[in-house]
GMP synthase [glutamine-hydrolyzing]
Amino acid sequence: MSVAAELHSPEKPASETRKILGPGGNRVRVLEEEKGKKERLKKKHSNNNTNNNTAAVDAKKLVSESPKAAVLKNRVGDRYSETSFCNGSVMKSVSSKRKVKNSSGVIAAKVVPHGRETLAVTRVAPGLVKRCDWITPNSETIYASFHDEEWGVPVKDETKLFELLVLSQALAELPWPTILRKRETFRRIFNNFDLLSVASIDEKKLLALSTNGNSLLSEQKLRAIVENAKLVLKIQQEFGSFSDYCWRFVSHKPIRNGFRYARQVPAKTPKSELMSRGLMQRGFRCVGPTVVYSFMQVAGMVNGHLVSCFRYNECNSNFNEDLDAEAKKETDV
């Protein structure tokens, strides 16, 4: 082929590789080009792997943030607070130094699931009332019920008054919750505090009660209960009733203390000292001013509830209702 013909011949496709003579002889210099293709293929494969890993991470993150455990992070200073929604209930996780407050009457209880400090939100039980300070959330139910239903209610019944006097005497050896738990045992031993039955307890039975391994009280207290029952019978003969004798120390009307704090409540008062002195002059035993004041409080002669307690006004209302009932009875007669 001539030079002119070659010049006018059509160009070869770019895809064809032109052979170039090199110093090493008649060889095709395509090694670099093939090497470049391999590098591009390798780079493309590496990018595909990276994309696959990213997709896997995104999928894992999507699962962890499903509606059952969605985590919403909000930056608060240098701490994070997280809110998770699990089965329709709200769980809050905060740093140990941060407190979560809620104005809708919510109490936060501390739980630790999976090593994380969280606050399980529970609602305050409805119907909570304000009681005297000595009734706490840790108080026994029987003690709280006694406070809500009996303590401070005016009592005029003879048998009930004698029972409350015995229980008040037992306070020298036992606390109220223990006495209330053993109340049925007291009633069984003393035949429901029937005055004639208690007064007739002889020495043999008294010794059996005091030497019993399960004795409720000391021998001194047991003897005092028996002797006091005999003296109550004498008071009934002299004054008509034990109730009238006791209530005359408060002019037959409960004393309303009106204390706001437990520290203001005294252990004894001039009225309790006066009743104590009167009982001891008649031969009663174990009836010091402190025991008598406890008796006056539990029998409703003194409204010892704090003014912030829901029972303070209720006990006053109970006495007024009793007065109305007595007045109506006298009118009917």
Q: What stands out?
A: The radius of gyration is 45 Å.
